[in-house]
Amino acid sequence: MTGNVTIADCGDSALVAKAVGLDAEPAWRLVHALADALDAVQLTGVHDVVPTYDALLVEFDCAVTDHATVRRVLAHEAARLGPHPAPTAPPRRFVVPVVYGGEYGPDLPEVAARLGLAEGEIIALHSGSDLTVRCLGAPAGAPMTDGPPFPKPVPRLASPRTKVAPGSVAVAGRQAVICPMPSPGGWPLLGRTPVRVLDLHSDPITAYRPGDTFRFVPIEPQQWDDYADLALGDLADTTALPDSADSVVGHG
Fold it and tell me: pLDDT tens-digit profile of 82-132?
């Protein structure tokens, strides 16, 4: 253990570093600062660094380096950072247009019923505050964000879908996500955004990173084409959407 970080082997070609003895927010900040620090070192043989909420997976080529070498660098960076590292990059804010309900968000009525709220109240809570991206998940860098302030967690679907459309906006537990590409999924769908979440020709393929925030803005179905040619990166550091609805619409 180094300070507030434990480091353990994970198979023959990975290590897991976990923040301990810290509250959730400082633990999250520490593992993401550690990930940035390891990326900056560019240690030979390390090919993937995956931070989550309180842990960091470091994958390496065991024919090029070994556990002891990677562990030594991780321990050094953890000691250098300390328990409360400063952010390495200022967060960006993305404004995300969403058509809620109907064919775009088929689970909105069920989520409203489970939470004892009207559909409009669900939309207002989901779009009423900035949600922080906590980590990138599957598939392909899906932005896992804080959930909206619903009165209780949202259960997953009893029967997951075999295919969820890209841009689908979903919630489960106390988390929220945008599905970046077609994939199976068991999270209830509240709506869908017309903007492209991924750019497979860019490096990185996502415009966002952990620590950035999303603000979802309701739009009407007939506004879909107004945003269909945009990428999510086009809506960074924006405070409003052109011609966005002044009230909650598009959930019929």
Answer: 888 987 778 899 999 999 999 999 999 999 999 999 999 999 999 999 999
The two structure tokens encoding residue 27: 């633990």
Chain centroid to CA 229: 22
**Residue count (the chain):** 252
Handedness of CA 223, 215, 168, 247 (dihedral sign): negative
217, HSE (Cβ side, Cα atoms, 13 Å): 21
Contact (CB, 8 A) for 44 and 60? no
DSSP 104-122: T-TTHHHHHHHHT--HHHH
Which DSSP category does 153 fall into?
P
Tokens representing 126 are: 């989901």
CB atoms within 10 A of CB 47: 11
Task: Decide: 146 and 129 in contact? Cβ < 8 Å.
Answer: no
| Residue with the two structure tokens 């390496």 | 60
* Beta strand 93-100 pairing with 213-218: parallel
108-115 and 119-127 are packed helices; what angle lies between their axes, rounded to 10 degrees?
100
- Collapse the DSSP code of 175 into the 3-class scheme (helix H, G, I; strand E, B; otherwise coil) and give the result: strand
